[in-house]
Amino acid sequence: MDLLDLKGIGKKKKDTLRKLNIYTVSDLYNYYPTSFEDRSHKTNILKANPDKKSYFEWKIVSRSYQNRTRVGIITYLFAFEEETNQKIKIIWFNDRFSHQKLKVGDNYKFYCKVKSENGIYETVNPIFCELDDEQIGNIIAIYPLTSGINQKQLSGFIKESLKNFDKDEEILDTSILNKISFNTKLDNLNQIHFPTEKENLMAAKSQIKIIDFVKELIYIDYINQNLQRKQSLDLKYDLDNILGKLEFKLTRSQLISLKEILNDASKDQLMNRLLIGDVGSGKTIVAIIAMIIFALNGYQAAMMVPTEVLAIQQYEKNLDLISKFGLNLGLLTGSQKNKDEIKEKLANGEIDIVIGTHALIQEDVIFKNLRFVVNDEQHRFGVGQRQALGKKGEKVNYLTMTATPIPRTISLRLSKILDLSMINELPKGRKPITTSVITEAMEETLFYEINKNLDEGRQVYVVSNNIDADDKNSVEKLYKRYIKQFKTRNVKKLHGDMKAADKDKTLKEFAEGRIDILISTTVIEVGIDVANANTMVIYNANHFGLSSLHQLRGRVGRGQYDSYCYLVSKHADNMAKLNILVNNENGFDIAKKDFDLRGGGKILSSIQHGRNISQIEFLNMASEEIDKGFKIFDYLKANNFRGVNFSYVEKFFEMDKRIILN
Ligand code: ADP
Ligand code: MG
């Protein structure tokens, strides 16, 4: 069934819905509200709080009048509230049409603020509807919108779509639902879009989240059991010899992870593994060694990273090591000059290992025999992009690396159903990073601290959340301020809008120690690695999530120096969140605290999908819900998934083949 078949949806509205990522009838009823407005309690004007919108019922008792004034057209009429025996003046500014919907002598529902002006009750531009309309008198779901559609229309479309609910979307049979005391998905959706009572609404949200999570668990298990493609691969390598060429000794958990990866790669099934490790734990080198081993066996390997800056850096950092094995390393990014040359060498097999951005998945990039793909920090990629790279080889093994902190309790349980390696220690000799939260007013002190570190020969990152907005802490404004403040130092800026060549140059200079202070957007958030930099200053710190802040902080503390992180907050209040970082240095602990603060995440999806952020927000789960999800999953698995509608599970993930770990 097409969206056009729904009442009220024409071609134009269909296009509008597309902007909300709604393409099908199912997308419509699976479009979750982000908040709710309780319009369910009727009150009267004597009891109502003048500062809050409330629900009233009034009779229209006059015709309407219009005045043309300097500020525009004012229309008004009078209504009467029986309960209190009071008259209310209803006023519209610059709205000549709404009043036409109100008939003298009829009763209507209103949702508005009412205040008393010189003894007359007044309301301005109220929301109103007929008595039998559900828009007022209920809890109302509020949806994210786009221009061309309003709440009422969207809600109406969703109501229509629910009449065409696809029963296949019930992934559990009624017998199972009864057993776990859950309602059907249809009932839950109805409750979410058209809530009747708060408790029911909460229960429905919770059940939808849990079942969605269970669906993912089932799917992971399903892939692992059924869909893995066979390969025959027999990698030959002398690990001691290879590790002997490194400048350092791998940590114990790096070594275990590496062996798990290599073990996968010599099984008869394709590798599909997730490597989780905190910022700075040394994931990259593990992947690089695995890539080297593939290459030494005559297969090509590719690493896809989220930013150009990072690609360049990884390339430069690993060039020497890879060359030591007589292998050719290539770099491929969107704005590179010798792209054609690189492409040719990928096609004829001259390049053994390539590091690049999404430029790697362009159609005209052809590999000779790609066999291993590493996605670094893949939560920045969409599912489709990741798949595209995998399609460039016949039998591609996948390794996904992420610092997305997954609370330990969850990852331990997850590891029973998916291939997961964890690096849970930092390389030896790392110094703790002293973190402080300061307010903008303390910038002078900050400058003093920065100067001290610069005097000792260290380098400094300064990060802001925006480039050039109307904010005194934008990259541009900070740049101006810092140049003035640090006249004798080399201050440079870096942001995503710069030309690749300039970014490249700036980054290189910073890595070589020729720039003292680098003022940047979060392009440096992922992966950048300069051991001499020991100071990280983050402006507008409150605008970042805890995990992002932790990632950013992880850019320092990579060498033998004491390191510092300053979180600059606009105001002295709301610092509680930032203090979590002061008191915790471990990403998992921070995730755990974040978890307690916000409720957990939709674990798998947050690793896998780079989309539907608001929906994921909606799907945030509390730890009891996650427990419940695992319980249901365990029960289903123990019963051979009897009562599970696999056809839908399969259909749902059809477009997302291999999203699980690639
Ligand atoms: P992340 O896990 O955040 O991607 P990286 O792979 O960037 O971390 O590693 C951080 C830094 O630690 C890099 O400079 C890397 O060379 C270094 N490193 C990795 N493993 C070790 C180790 N076992 N001993 C010392 N330094 C290491
Ligand atoms: Mg990294």
How would you describe this structure to a colleague?
With 662 residues, the protein is of the alpha/beta class. Among the domains are: 41-130, Nucleic acid-binding proteins (OB fold (Dihydrolipoamide Acetyltransferase, E2P)), CATH 2.40.50.140; 239-423, Rossmann fold (3-Layer(aba) Sandwich); 433-584, P-loop containing nucleotide triphosphate hydrolases (Rossmann fold), CATH 3.40.50.300. It has 23 helices and 23 strands. The strands form four sheets. Strands 2, 3, 4, 5, 6, 7, 8 and 9 form an eight-stranded mixed sheet that branches. The protein has a seven-stranded parallel sheet with strand order 13-14-12-15-16-11-17, sandwiched between helices. The protein has a six-stranded parallel sheet with strand order 18-23-22-19-21-20, with helices on both faces. β20 (491-494), α16 (500-511) and β21 form a beta-alpha-beta unit. α5 (185-193) crosses α6 (198-227) and α17 packs antiparallel against α19 (587-598). The two termini are 32 Å apart. Bound molecules: adenosine-5'-diphosphate and magnesium ion. Adenosine-5'-diphosphate binds next to α9. Adenosine-5'-diphosphate (ADP) is lined by residues 248-251, 254, 277, 279-285, 403, 427, 527, 529, 558.
Defining key terms:
single chain; 662 residues; alpha/beta; OB fold (Dihydrolipoamide Acetyltransferase, E2P); Rossmann fold; eight-stranded mixed β-sheet; seven-stranded parallel β-sheet; 23 helices; 37% helix; 19% strand; globular; disordered C terminus; binds adenosine-5'-diphosphate; binds magnesium ion
